[in-house]
Fold UTP--glucose-1-phosphate uridylyltransferase.
Amino acid sequence: MEPAKIKAVMPVAGLGTRFLPATKATPKEMLPVVDKPAIQYVVEEAVAAGIRDVLMIIGRNKNAIANHFDSVPELEEKLTAKGDDSKLGRVTKSSDLADVHLLRQGEPKGLGHAIGRARQHVGETPFAVMLGDDLIDERDPLLPKMIEVNEQKKAMVIALMEVDPESISMYGCASVEATDDPDVVKVLNLVEKPAQEDAPSNLAIIGRYLLTHEIFPVLDRTEPGKGGEIQITDALNEVAADDDNVDVYGVIFRGRRYDTGDKLDYIKAIVQLASERDDLGPDLRPWIKDFAANL
């Protein structure tokens, strides 16, 4: 399977209640991380992995996302007239990035339900599910490895990251067995947000999945789990346990990841990314040191 044939599905229907009142009228995915909305980083990640077909599963009040990836002729004309090629390039980049499609989730029944809505669009093509709260640093690509494992094993693939055992209750958690690749494991069992004492490992599921069409009938029969929602973790757990279905593998990610779904981590992400930029870092880094020294 050529990477370019793989499609991306981005569930962006959440209400973003942790960021109220900022998200009262603005989708959380449109909150800026330095000078780009968070969702643009995710689309750029997909494109860098060779994926140009992006389906966004949206909810109400998400028109700003559609507008961001559409062209804005009046703004582009003004920037062209001013000869401001730099700003024009930044404006047109988002509309030229990928073929972005939009589909309403309808009744919000959880991540598993949102993924199930993508069935008609992806057909029998493997597809990457990319959650907008997780930003993967472009210097530490993750999707290419997941695509490679999917191609080699003809399996579904999830992204895993080692976390502090005290934090595992915030994530889905995987029980695994090793392979001959230290960064790839076979998934035996998955548990959604287990208590620390019940967690089978400290390997947490992060927001990247490489799924195949075999997930859809499983999602159809998956009952609501934690939070009363249809959990993709529960569906994948059934797939992993079924010897007659495809296997599930995990890629252990050891790179830089930024969680923009939590207020504190969102602020950290902005500071980290801005401090490493050539245009902002030289002035920002010494300011951070002075600010911290005077706390």
